[in-house]
Each structure stands twice: as structure tokens, then as C-alpha cells.
Amino acid sequence: MKLKTVNFIGFVILGTVILSCSPKTEEPETIKDAYAEFFDIGTVLNAWQILGNDSAAVNVAIKNFNTVTAENAMKWEKIHPEPGVFNFEVADKIVEIAEQNNMKVIGHVLLWHSQTPKWVFFGEDGELTSRDTLLARLKNHIEVVLGHYKGKIHGWDVVNEAFNDDGTQRNTLWKKIIGDDYIQKAFEFAAEADPNTELYYNDFNMYKPQKVDSVIKMVNDLREKGVKIDGIGMQGHYGLKDNPLLNEFEASVKAYSELGVKVMITEMDITLLPFPSPGNGADVGMRFELEEGLDPYKEGLPDSVKVELAGRYSDLFRVLLKYSNSVSRVTIWGVNDLYSWRNNWPIRGRSDYPLLFDRQNQPKLVVDSLITLANQYKN
Ligand code: XIL
């Protein structure tokens, strides 16, 4: 018995010596690890990936990101397509992937004017439904979905895109039927349905000064009424040179930080393609035809633009690092360039390169730049 023990210890020592002498293939640092002490780094998975058809992309997600959002699977039209019919299949799978790989799940989204079925707003007579009916439908939707995922979702985008760039409330069927207090109601229903999940307001163009003012006012109003709101999601569908300018970006991040809520970039991507209209943002309903000159990188991206992309991401992350006491997460809207919605919005069928990993799932120059940047901020 004694001899066996001695042998065993000897074996372990020998094994350790061999292991520590053998040449190590150093794994490069991942972006989630580089930013671990500052904020979470998230990604988004589409249904194709969630259902197991693209394990390479899912592996990139698991290895490099620590939070995950479903690109479409938790939107009303997918998860609650008909009255009384809930379809949790794809959404359940992403929660499972996250649980198995120690990732936080972000719920996207409970109330939005897009990707919401028509029946939600209309009665059987084809007329717009009443305030009470729509509130009851919203409450039921939130209760069932949050109930199903109780304890499994780190935070929910409760309301998406309620304001215009000029700070006025967007004229949606939610507002038209329920009235201006629909935002408050959505947050109240969510807080009741799951008191332990974080609740966020999410929107694009969140750096535009009038929008910033309105969102701050909304947060203050909700708080005065004792309604829970934990964070602000700035979608972050950005451009290479402006949209936003760095100073307006910083001013908005600072303003939200000073509110004492969590600040998140929730859907970050940086398009490299010409934008076909003077406005920008991320209105999913916006569509343009492909014209000459609007798809310049079909055959690949010049090195100089790769460098520009890395520089632009770094400039924006530098601001986020400066406010890292308030910034809790940056989610990149897609694992790799191949599946980015930017290839098809606002013009279908272009080749964009807005994300951190290329079409072959290889980290782009920008990943290295962002990791180097994070390390500069460590003591
Ligand atoms: C986009 C998805 O990426 C697409 O697959 C889908 O066809 C349309 O919606 N703002 C949001 C996201 O809040 O839900 C949108 O996602 C992009 C803009």
C-alpha cells in the first residue's frame, strides 16, 4: 500500500515536471478576458447558429464572449406568434448554450413596434384594440415570457426605440392605443413578473442630444414614480467616421453614467459601407435599392480600411473604458461578418465588415487592438 502511494506521488511529480518542460502553445488572450475587470463583452446568435447548424461560429461565441443575446428568437413575432401560442424552442436552446458555457443571457426584447405581429394591436373586427385590451396582452406576454425564463436571464430590454431623434415619443401603435404611459406600464409588468432580472431601455442614435435629454427625463420620471429601471442600452449601429462623433458619444455616455444607471452598448457594429441617406440610425423598416458605388468591398477589404476599423473601435472603447464604472456590457451584434444584418440593411445583398471576426471566424486586427487597449488601462 505504502509503496503504491510513493509510486503514485513519484508519478505525479514526474508528470508535472514533464508537463512544465514541454513547450507550451500559448493561447492568445481573448477579448472577454482582457475586459473582464471593466465590463462584459457580449455577442448575438441567430436561429441557424442556435439550432446547431454552425458550430464554428458558436464556438467563437463561447470562447470569446461572456454574454449572449438572441438576434431574433425572443422577439414577439417569434416567441408569441399567435394569441395564446408561445414558441420557446429556439430561445430555450440559447439559454441552454449559455448555461453550459457560463455565459449571461440578455433578453431582447419585450415591447417594440417592429417584429410584433399585427394581431397584438387589432381586434377580431379588424379595428384597433382598446387601451385595456392592449395592456392586458402586454401584461400576459411579459408574465408568460419572464415567468418561463425566471432566474435564467440576466437582464431584459423592456422597451425598444420609443423616441425619435428629436426627442419626441415615436408615434407607434403602442403609444396611439395605450397612451404615453405605455413605457411605464411595460417596466411595471416586467418588474412584477421577475423582480430579479435587470430591466433596460434600449434605442439607437442614443448619442443625439435631444434623445439623450428625453431618455434621461424618462428615467427620472420612472424613478419618481418608483418604477424599476436598471440600465440604458445604446444600440451602437455606428459608422466609420461619424455617427457618432466622438465628442457626442462621450457626452452621452457621461450623461447616462451620471444618472447612476448601468450603461450598455447593446448591438454594436460599425458599417464600412456608404449609407444611402443623409439620416442614419437603425430603423429596421428603412430600405434602399442597390446602386452603383454602394457596394465597394464585394471582393474584399483593403488593409487600410481594416486599420481604420480597428482605430474606430478603439476610439469608442477608449471612451467606454473611461466610464467603465458605469458601463456594464458591450455586445457586438453578431459573431462574424458573414451573418451581420448589415450585409442586408438598409440595402440587401452587400458585403460589409462591421464585426470583430471575419467570414472564416478568424479574429480581425480590431480584436488585437482592443485587447492591447484594455491592457493599457490595467494598473
Ligand atoms: C435585426 C436583426 O439583426 C435582423 O436579423 C432582423 O431581420 C431585423 O432586426 N435594432 C434592434 C435589433 O433592436 O433587434 C435589430 O435586429 C437591429 C436594429
Description:
- This protein has 379 residues and is an alpha/beta fold.
- The protein has one domain (31-276, 293-378): TIM Barrel.
- 40% of the residues lie in helices and 14% in strands.
- The protein is built from 13 helices and 9 strands.
- An 8-stranded parallel β-barrel has the order 1-2-3-4-5-6-8-9, surrounded by 6 helices.
- Helix 11 (246-258) links the parallel strand 7 and strand 8 (262-271).
- Mean pLDDT is 94; it is low at 1-6 and 8-22.
- It binds (3S,4R)-3-hydroxy-2-oxopiperidin-4-yl beta-D-xylopyranoside.
- Residues 71-72, 160, 235, 267, 282, 284, 341 line the site of (3S,4R)-3-hydroxy-2-oxopiperidin-4-yl beta-D-xylopyranoside.
What's the topology here?
Elements lengths: L1 H20 L9 H4 L5 E6 L1 H4 L4 H10 L2 E4 L5 H4 L9 H12 L3 E8 L19 H18 L6 E6 L12 H6 L3 H12 L4 E6 L5 H16 L6 E4 L2 E3 L6 H13 L3 E10 L31 H20 L4 E6 L32 H12 L3
Parallel strand pairs: 1-2, 1-9, 2-3, 3-4, 4-5, 5-6, 6-8, 7-8, 8-9
Helix pairs in contact: 7-9, 11-12, 12-13
This protein binds (3S,4R)-3-hydroxy-2-oxopiperidin-4-yl beta-D-xylopyranoside (XIL).
The site of (3S,4R)-3-hydroxy-2-oxopiperidin-4-yl beta-D-xylopyranoside has 8 residues, from loops.
